[in-house]
Amino acid sequence: MRITDIRATPVTVPLEAPLRHANGSHWGRFVRTIVEIETDCGLVGLGEMGGGGESAVAAFEGLKPLLLGRDPSRIEELRFAISNPTASLYNNRTQVMAAIEFACLDLLGKKWGVPVSEILGGRLRDRVAFASYLFFRYPHPKDGTGEVRTVEQLVAEAERLKAAYGFTSHKLKGGVFAPEHELACYRAVAEALDGDSFRFDPNGVWSAEQAMWFGQQIADVRNDYFEDPVFGLHGMRRVREKVSMPLATNTVVVNFEQLSANALCTAVDVILLDTTFWGGIRPCLKAAGVCETFQLGVAVHSSGELGIQLATMLHLGAVLPNLSFAADAHYHHLTDDVIVGGKMTYEDGAIAVPTAPGLGVELDRDKLAEYHELYLRLGTYPYDQDPLRPGWTPLIPNDRWADPDDARVPNVPL
Q1: What are the sequence ranges of the domains in the chain?
Q2: What percent of the chain has pLDDT over 90?
Q3: How far is Cα 11 from Cα 339, in angstroms, rounded to an integer?
């Protein structure tokens, strides 16, 4: 089997409402790049990458000389051809390599008639549990629905998600409002869903002192972990000395050099493995092996997936012996998907690991065309900007908080 072509298609898929985060907002949609690798035996492998747009199309087009004619089973050789560690200081291809790895694993599974989880060593679980992913949200620009800004709105949203999907672990994405308001929100959700577990993530925009204070205020909550309260390994180490719960990260341990530094002088207890940020499923497995050796917790991180990347997360979660916590997923915020059959379904807070060969999902060509056309009409959006605060950017540590009494509706194109 040899690679004969590669193509990338940017798409944009609507969300229930714009999602707010510490550094800006998802403006009512996700932009993703769908990657297809064709082979001389007629099989097509699927990959997915976050964002990108025209630049991603150009990046994948530029890799054709490195890819055409190669055997997709030789993934380790492809890794060094595409993202050689020294060369990658200049070409920044880690996420591109991840999408190619997904597609190559998909091809191998289809060729051999087995799901990717079997290639990775065999599944240990048939379903992967997920946490709810609670965001502060702007109202939908068209109908004003979906807003999450106040304590009462957040509690109602958490209760809705639990009733709809069966989540028993709940994550709040913070760093939007002042810590005092977000503390009231977090504690209210924990009280309303007593008996479940909780996690909080302000995306690293606090000072160590703010993080210590917040962590001490939630010590009595049943916390899974405290995620990225500050940015940087030493800052995390300082906070870890002063709080009584595990710290987790998907920002300051995202490669093996950082993982080794954390193992030698621990700053983070739980490593959130992202199949895109780490460059593929296989690097995540390697990292999980290191974590197993050093008794660090692991979980599966979400970077804003459609169904193809969600499948990679499910296959990863299925084979990890040391999967310590429910996975994250933005997936329930989406209104649709580009895979055949539409969105995957949750049952009792979990999603079944696909059993069909390869990643176990197929492209819905009509949906791909529909959401590619939507991308061409709307274009991309600035992830690191807030639509109601033009020119705003957070400081680190931040003191430029949004106003929880501001009920304006953003005028964003949808």
Answers
A1: 3-113+366-378, 119-359
A2: 94
A3: 12
Q: How many Å apart are CA 185 and CA 195, to the nearest integer?
A: 17
Task: Note if 110 is an active site residue.
Answer: no
Confidence of residue 85 (pLDDT cuts 50, 70, 90): confident
The DSSP H or E segment spanning 167 is none
What does R_g of the chain's alpha carbons equal in angstroms? 21
Q: What is the largest CA-CA distance in the chain?
A: 60
pLDDT value at position 89? Answer: 67
**Active-site residue (options: 21, 301, 330, 367):** 301
Class of domain 3-113+366-378: alpha beta
- Mean pLDDT over 59-71 rounds to 94
**Which one of the listed residues 173, 181, 330, 333 is annotated catalytic?**
173
Q: What is the CATH number of domain 119-359?
A: 3.20.20.120
Q: How far apart are CA 52 and CA 402, in angstroms?
A: 28
Q: Which residues contact 14 (CB under 8 A, 6 or more apart)?
A: 28, 29, 334, 335, 336, 374, 414
The answer to whether residue 330 is catalytic is no
pTM for the model: 0.97
